């Protein structure tokens, strides 16, 4: 096999790995299991605008299980996961679950709005920035997905493409447990009441 052909095979493997596992850093991706309750840290709050210009705060979702997805329109693995997240939103929203998407596109809404409309994303999407990423220890690869329990604590972090079943199993586990402080009562943010 010629050196050129070997180089082509290696480049193809690299690009495939980037497409499947995330594009910022090529590394072995291992999905995290749910952290024990005592090791979970509170998810940093943020205030970002959604496509309608309404402010979205993570703290408004306390009492719900939240899948917080950092993604971008150019990210291949993100495009694989988004339909899964739409399915989770559809099936679990009435059980106290919400998906929040934070786009890290440099072009902001110019890139994000057409993508959201084309795909028909059924959950709230915001455009993030460096300061949002820093709150989450810097987002080094996309997608990076946080599963947040009803108490607002990070139960798992998935970097790169993770299997749909693994994420779904984690969501179902988190939904079974009520919030520790509020007896499991779930409150929907005012912007969402009647919007679904």
Q: What are the SSEs and their pairings?
A:
Elements: H1 3-21, E1 47-49, E2 55-57, E3 65-71, H2 76-92, E4 97-103, H3 109-119, E5 124-127, H4 130-135, E6 144-148, E7 154-159, H5 164-176
Parallel strand pairs: 3-4, 4-5
Antiparallel strand pairs: 1-2, 3-6, 6-7
Structural notes for this entry:
The protein is an alpha/beta fold and 196 residues long. It has one domain (28-184): Glutaredoxin (3-Layer(aba) Sandwich), CATH 3.40.30.10. The chain is built from 5 helices and 7 strands. The strands form 2 sheets. A 5-stranded mixed β-sheet has the order 5-4-3-6-7. Strands 1-2 form a two-stranded antiparallel sheet. The radius of gyration is 18 Å and the shape is globular. It starts with a helix and ends in a 20-residue tail after the last helix. The model is unreliable at 1-21, 24-32, 182-188 and 191-196 (pLDDT under 50).
């Amino acid at each position: 096999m010629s050196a050129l052909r070997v180089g082509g095979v290696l480049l193809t493997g690299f690009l495939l790995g980037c497409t499947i596992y995330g594009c910022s850093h090529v590394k072995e991706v291992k999905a995290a299991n749910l952290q024990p309750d005592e090791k979970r840290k509170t998810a940093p709050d943020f205030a970002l605008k959604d496509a309608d210009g309404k402010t979205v705060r993570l703290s408004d979702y306390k009492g719900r299980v939240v899948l917080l997805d950092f993604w971008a329109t150019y990210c291949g693995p993100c495009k694989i996961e988004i339909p899964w997240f739409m399915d989770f939103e559809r099936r679990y929203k009435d059980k106290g679950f919400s998906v929040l998407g934070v786009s890290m596109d440099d072009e902001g809404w110019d890139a994000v709005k057409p993508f959201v409309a084309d795909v028909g994303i059924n959950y709230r999407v915001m455009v993030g920035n460096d300061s949002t990423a820093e709150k989450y220890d810097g987002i080094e690869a996309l997608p990076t997905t946080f599963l947040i329990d009803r108490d607002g604590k990070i139960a798992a972090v998935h970097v790169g493409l993770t299997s749909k079943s693994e994420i779904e199993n984690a969501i179902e586990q988190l939904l079974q447990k009520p919030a520790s402080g509020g007896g499991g009562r779930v409150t929907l943010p005012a912007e969402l009441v009647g919007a679904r």
